[in-house]
Design brief:
Number of helices of chain B: 0
Helix content of chain B: under 10%
Shape of chain B: globular
Structural class of chain B: mainly beta
Structural class of chain A: mainly beta
Number of strands of chain A: 11
Largest interface: A-B, 24 and 19 residues
Distance between the termini of chain A: 37 Å
Shape of chain A: globular
Order of helices and strands of chain A: EEEEEEEEEEE
Largest sheet of chain B: 7 strands, mixed
Low-confidence stretches of chain B: none
Low-confidence stretches of chain A: none
Radius of gyration of chain B: 13 Å
Oligomer: heterodimer
Number of helices of chain A: 0
Helix content of chain A: under 10%
């Protein structure tokens, strides 16, 4: 079993749609969680950290469920510019970050 | 954003060449990383340096040799590479190794002929 598993893609949605990605992790000692966005042939960029209480940044909402060991990313009112690969990252305390394989989102007009 | 800069952006080298990739971070971070991303594959961690000391070598072949002279600079020395080493090489930094987010450079796209 992979340490970090993401929803298989691709996700193809129309503009304005709401889309959600899930990411499960196997190490119950994991302490830090992040979502990154990677555009084609570019470097990953931090989208948001994921906090225990859940957090929101504009159209993006991230949640953590420690009991079930998963994190989620919800994107509301999708824009064409949201098209990218979304990477889930999980880090044990003082350990090395583990990246998921990524979920590709394409938002169509 | 120029927090982490990598040079060169593109590199083509033969299997007998020796070249080096350079990374510099201007964020005051203490940890630096090398990642490899091959086409259609996830990111693979190669090396980690924390306060200039190597703390992680993820079973990387010896034809890749990292160097970290100080907390702001990181190099990856390449020699006798193979065509399958062609990939995007990404440098990243974080405040500390572990639970702080990574900041990536633009990457070096390497082609080995």
């Amino acid at each position: 079993r992979k340490e970090v598993e993401q929803d298989p893609g691709p996700f193809n949605v129309p503009e304005g749609a709401t889309v959600a990605f899930n990411c499960t992790y196997s190490n119950s000692a994991s302490q830090s969680f992040f979502w990154y966005r990677q555009d084609c042939r570019k470097e990953p960029k931090l989208l948001m950290s994921v906090y225990s209480s859940g957090n929101e940044d504009g159209r993006f909402t991230a949640q953590l469920n420690r009991a079930s060991q998963y994190i989620s990313l919800l994107i509301r009112d999708s824009k064409l510019s949201d098209s990218a690969t979304y990477l889930c990252v999980v880090t044990p305390n003082a350990g090395k970050s583990t990246f998921g394989d990524g979920t590709t989102l394409t938002v169509k007009p | 954003e120029t927090g982490v800069t990598q040079t060169p952006r593109h590199l083509v080298m033969g299997m007998t060449n020796k070249k080096s990739l350079k990374c510099e971070q201007h964020l005051g971070h203490n940890a630096m990383y090398w990642y490899k991303q091959s086409a259609k594959k996830p990111l693979e961690l190669m090396f980690v340096y924390n306060f200039k000391e190597q703390t992680e070598n993820n079973s990387v072949p010896s034809r890749f040799s990292p160097e970290c002279p100080n907390s702001s600079h990181l190099f990856l020395h390449l020699h006798t590479l193979q065509p399958e080493d062609s990939a995007l090489y990404l440098c990243a930094s974080s405040q500390e190794q572990g639970d702080s987010p990574l900041h990536f450079g633009n990457g070096t796209r390497l082609t080995v002929t």
